Amino acid sequence: MGEQRFIFGGAATVPSAVRASTAFWIASTFTSWAVPGILTLVRIGTHRAEWGWLELLGVAFGAPFAALQVWAAFRLLRGAHWARIVLTLVAVFYVSSAVNNHWSVLPMVSLILAVAGSVLMWQPAINAFFQPQKELPASDQQARR
Fold first, then answer.
1. 0.85 exceeded by the pTM?
2. Rounded distance, CA 137 to CA 114, Å?
3. What's the N-to-C CA distance of the chain in angstroms?
4. Are 21 and 115 in contact (CB under 8 A)?
5. Is the Cβ–Cβ distance between 37 and 59 less than 8 Å?
6. What is the CA angle 45-46-50, rounded to 5?
7. Pick from 17, 96, 133, 142: most CB atoms within 10 A?
8. pLDDT class of 106 with cuts at 50, 70, 90
């Protein structure tokens, strides 16, 4: 009947902690990039922003970073170890963002979601999921047939 699928299209063999981590990272991206970007565009559209062009550049340059974060989060579902490292660095960035924004609400929410995603993806119980899969030697592949 084929492979069973769950949330985010991952295989049934993906640990639930990795699925939850992916969900936290996507929510973190939404609160750190999408919501501020939408608010900035609304302020620019209503002429309430003093530095509208500068904020617009921030949204434009932030979009590729948000896309990278979402892509890395989805790569977690495939067991990509590099994605854990990249997302951990993003979490460190969120700490500095929260501090620089005087611990305001939106950066704090992003930070909490990123920390939750980081803790889940680095649990010792799921480290085996992120280990590279060894290819079977040709002789073993023929023996399985």
1. no
2. 39
3. 21
4. no
5. yes
6. 90
7. 17
8. confident
Q: Which residues contact residue 120 at a Cβ distance below 8 angstroms, ignoring those fewer than 6 apart?
A: 17, 18, 20, 21, 24
Nearest to 9 by CA among 64, 93, 87, 73: 73
> Exposure pattern of 63-83 as b/e (b: 16+ CB <10 Å)?
eeebeebbebbbbbbebbeeb
Residues 75 and 11: their CA atoms lie apart, in Å, by 12
Per the CB < 8 A criterion, the answer to whether 66 and 29 are in contact is yes
Strands (DSSP E) contained in 1-145 are none
Question: Which of 114, 29, 115 minimizes the C-alpha distance to 64?
Answer: 29
Average pLDDT, the chain: 78
Here the tokens at position 9 are: 């299209």
